[in-house]
Amino acid sequence: MSGFSDYDDFDGLGLADLVRQGDVSPHELLEEAVERTTRLDPTINAVTQQHFDLAKEAIDQGLPDGPFSGVPFLLKDLGVGLKGTITSSSSKLYKDAVADHDTTLVERYKAAGLVIFGKTNTPEFGITATTEPALHGPARNPHNTDYSTGGSSGGAAAAVAAGYIPVAHASDGGGSIRIPASCCGVFGLKPTRARTPSGPDVGEGWAGLSIAHCVSRTVRDSAALLDATHGPAVGDPYAAPHFGGSFLEEMQKAPGQLRIAVQTRSNADTRVHPDCLEAIAKTAKLLEDMGHIVEEAEPDLAPGVIGDALRFASSVGTAAMLDAHAERLGRPITEDDVEWVTWRTYQRGKKVLAADYARSIALIHQITRKVGYFFEDYDLHLAPTLGTPPRKLGELDTQNHDTKPYARLIGEFSPFTAMYNITGQPSASIPMYWTEDGLPVGVMLTARFGDDAAVLRVAAQLEEASPWAGRKPPNWAEA
Predict the structure, then answer these.
(1) Of 88, 89, 90, 176, which residue is the catalytic one?
(2) Measured at the alpha carbon of residue 128, what is the angle toward residues 126 and 133, in degrees to the nearest 5?
(3) What is the pTM of this model?
(4) What value, to the nearest 5°, has the Cα angle with vertex 408 and ends 76 and 432?
(5) What is the average per-residue pLDDT within 364-388?
């Protein structure tokens, strides 16, 4: 592999096989990933923390014989801890916050043999759908650098889309895996609630709406990484339904004929862009050609109810986090400490009464049951991932004190994803369409609670029928 000319031809599992066979060393793979990152990231700004020396040290100490042994990997700069390194959450409040231990998910990544060499850009505290933090500056879409990567795992999706690495850590509390996966043209699975661990520092994020997994160029990398990381940890408050098999093996099985509901109407009663509708039409036709039963149907929910439930969970979670940090600082959090949208979210959360929060949790449970009954009749639900193609950078302005335009644009941009954070169901964005301008548009596929394997099986069918992994954006980190 002189010059690593074949690096682009392999996903994470493929690279690990090369290491296992002795065709390439973990040091060579790391050097390639670092060189690509160093060369292209001044343009893309996907990576906010560099841990190159720690990665080399991990290789020198000997890597476990895991499914991804020797594969370079990036963590999201939010929600995880890598001992001895900063997790900034893209906020100046945490810009010097050094972890004194690995979080459970990071322990599992290390056990899988992944070589962690940095962290990726995210909006401040992950509370918006674009990655344009004041602390680190905007992540730029590899397909067109005038456009957003989406958020909150925007840096992760950009790093994978631009060819730094084949798979990266990501997390999703309202769409934060699926939104950037759609914007950047990669695969992004949000697993079933509690399928992967959040510990040891927290039991759940945003009342159970948030969960971590990855974005990847191939479906099989996502399945294999879920194999390596799923399952409860000691002390977890609850667990996903037990899965005793292999997601990678399940992904390769024929799904049989499935009943698939197709939705095109926005959950927020906003207009859906024609390109997003065309992506759904193309995918629905493909699924029909595969033999599935496809018909128009959607859960019967009042417009706006999903947004209400998400706002309660995210604002109260943000308020609790910042109040805890205020105690550590020994002073109140002020408007100057955070971005304007974060400040507004914090203030809204502090005003929520305990009884109001209890009612919001009851609302979440009601929505979950109603949607659960919908899935008594359907195996899968197909909808647009987003209401529009990627937005231009600067449109979703988190510093504008007039929040009405911001709220309107967010509602138009992402009216679909949050429903499945509320219900906890496995849901993925699949890159099935590109606009005439070359921007990716994802479709969202969701299964019953606990049935992550169904999403992976049909996503693999679509990947085989309409491959996307070889489609390189103009900004690609070529060797």
Answers:
(1) 176
(2) 70
(3) 0.98
(4) 55
(5) 97
